[in-house]
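As a warm-up, study this chain.
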Amino acid sequence: MGDEFEGNADIADQPKDFDKASDSEGIDDELDFAPGQAIKIADEEQMMQQQIIQSSIGRDEWMLEVERVAHKLKINKNTSDGKEWRAHMDQTKKYHDQVKGNLPDVRYKLERLSDDVSQALEKIGKKEQVLTRSFQGMTGDYRSHSDNLKEI
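Now compare it with the structure written out below.
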């Protein structure tokens, strides 16, 4: 916002020349396009766009308005400014250090858990073998009775 700003860029303050009597007729005329009228309207629109825009707002008034809305016009920089990879790298290093620090304790606990599970499986296997041996005679009897029932 330097001193070179002249504050003459408001098209809204440009005076408009409309006939009050032809307001309702103008709407109807715009809806009924003749081949020459469409080109004429397009030319008028192009001329309006090419005209120099002049404002009746003074420089001081314009600067006050700029100060009033400047905070709304500022662009917020997000973390996606090209350095987000650095944050990811720092976070990865932090997690690596945490894992490295906790690894000996966790490894000891996991080995102990593995030993406990292995012992439990061995006990289950031994009990299974005992049950199999003790009921082996009964299973033979059961098979023979079921075979007899099938024959009947």
